[in-house]
């Protein structure tokens, strides 16, 4: 099987590529290498097929069986930096890539989406049939891409849309602009955990390995159901308030209880989701269940980075900071 992965050298992509290679797939990597400097373990492969997925033509995509599309602005802060560019990159260009893929005869297209499309939800657990109401450009652009891809979905071109929960956990290319990763990195240095909100908002969390495994499953397996090809990826045992998640992380790390600002603001991004539909479609897949063990592994991975204190000071693992530096270097 020939698989093309965009965003192949990022936080999730580096794990997806490793799993595909371990399964014997021939992998072609496309990545802008905005975050290549963040890699802390291993070496890059020699499989870089392109640096900008927007430049790929129908001919370039011919011969691939599957595309896993991870590239694009990766969180709300990057989305707010330029909403117009966010819609162009995450929605319009993602749809254009999928159309090229369909014309090239690619059989399956897997989109990395986000549970952020649910936005400011009520207390109910959201499933894939519920209305999405994103409140950020990043979430809205992802929802737009989902809708464009669904319009292309048919018997000859299978679309799989995976809405990821809030990821955390070890990767060869770490990120500390994800809540639990930031807390675990601070804990690895023995620092107290400090939040920027009141911690009352709900979040579905997931180990990044779960998301990578789910993306690979959707890329190489045929779903056992033929309903709407949108799936939340969210371990049932890892949904909690931000306050609870931070408190548990502090306990695992054996650092003081988390600190909250005296004038704590509420985070409007609050939602709970059901991740069970994916299990019905891909019955060989299983979620991680031990949140504390996953937190401990994340702390250990950051503690193993000899330059961690300096890396945090320089925002080495913060995507928005890295992107700004890359843009400045391009215009210098």
TrEMBL record:
Pfam family membership, one: Epimerase
SUPFAM superfamilies per record: NAD(P)-binding Rossmann-fold domains
UniProt signal peptide: none
InterPro entries, sorted: Epimerase_deHydtase, Lipid_A_modif_metabolic_enz, NAD(P)-bd_dom_sf
Domain NAD-dependent epimerase/dehydratase: 3-234
PANTHER family, A to Z: BIFUNCTIONAL POLYMYXIN RESISTANCE PROTEIN ARNA, NAD(P)-BINDING DOMAIN-CONTAINING PROTEIN
The protein's name in its UniProt record: Nucleoside-diphosphate-sugar epimerase
Source organism per UniProt: Yoonia rosea
């Amino acid at each position: 099987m020939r698989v093309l992965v965009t965003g192949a050298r990022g936080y999730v992509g580096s794990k997806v590529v490793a799993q595909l290679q371990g399964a014997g797939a021939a992998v072609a990597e496309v990545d802008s290498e905005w975050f290549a400097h963040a890699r802390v373990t291993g070496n890059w492969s020699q499989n870089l097929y392109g640096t900008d997925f927007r430049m790929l033509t129908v001919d370039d995509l011919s011969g691939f069986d599957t595309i896993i599309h991870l590239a694009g602005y990766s969180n709300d802060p990057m989305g707010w930096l330029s909403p117009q560019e966010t819609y162009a990159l995450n929605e319009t260009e993602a749809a254009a890539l999928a159309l090229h893929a369909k014309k090239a005869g690619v059989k399956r297209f897997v989109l990395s989406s986000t549970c952020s499309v649910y936005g400011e939800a009520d207390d109910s657990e959201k499933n894939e049939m519920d209305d999405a109401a994103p409140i950020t450009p990043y979430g809205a652009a992802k929802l737009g891409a989902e809708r464009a891809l669904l319009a292309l979905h048919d018997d000859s071109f299978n679309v799989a849309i995976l809405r990821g929960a809030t990821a955390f956990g070890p990767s060869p290319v770490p990120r500390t602009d994800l809540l639990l990763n930031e807390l675990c990195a601070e804990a690895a240095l023995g620092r107290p955990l400090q939040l920027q909100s009141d911690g009352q908002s709900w979040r579905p969390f997931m180990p990044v390995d779960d998301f990578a495994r789910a993306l690979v499953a959707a890329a190489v397996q045929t779903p056992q159901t033929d309903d709407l090809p949108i799936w939340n990826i969210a371990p049932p045992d890892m949904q909690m308030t931000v306050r609870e998640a931070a408190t548990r992380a502090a306990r695992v790390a054996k650092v003081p209880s988390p600190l909250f600002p005296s004038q704590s603001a509420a985070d409007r991004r609050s939602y709970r989701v059901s991740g069970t539909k994916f299990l019905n479609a891909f019955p060989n897949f299983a979620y991680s269940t031990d949140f504390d063990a996953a937190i401990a592994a994340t702390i250990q991975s950051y503690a193993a980075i000899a330059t961690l204190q300096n890396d945090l000071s320089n925002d080495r693992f913060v995507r928005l900071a890295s992107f700004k530096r890359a843009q400045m270097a391009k215009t210098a």
